[in-house]
Amino acid sequence: MSINSTSTSTKEYLGHESPDGAVLGKATTSLVAFHGSSPVDQAAALTAQLTTITITDAAGTPDYALSALTTSSPYGLATLAEAVTLLYVIKNLQTRVAELETRLTEKGLVASA
Fold it and tell me: CB within 8 A of 49, min separation 6: which ones?
């Protein structure tokens, strides 16, 4: 471990400026912790991602103020705009969770699937 500091900095840096980078934890079984938490080994791969929703009806203005579900058969949302909006929100969540999984896997915080 090297300590790199300037006259105004008291930060402590891990690593030796190696061109290949620095590794925290030599194996997936190495125990590592951040911010005072208990050290743990690498987390298992996340649950497999389902197919991302493809929305074919993109017409109209999103209606983010969803009303109560209809209570007659068939059950559903009050308007088509609400249903399309809900699909866009789900698709956005799928995309964002996939991005988080990619970043966590890149950093080695979770195993790859």
Answer: 94, 97, 98, 101
Average pLDDT over residues 12-34: 88
The token pair at 101 is 């999984």
> Would you mind telling me the total number of residues written for the chain in this entry?
113
Q: In 39-79, which ranges are continuous DSSP H helix?
A: none
**pTM (2 d.p.):** 0.64
Nearest CA among 83, 86, 93, 104 for reference residue 50: 93
CA angle 84, 88, 92 (to 5 degrees): 170
| Residue 30 pLDDT greater than 90, yes or no | yes
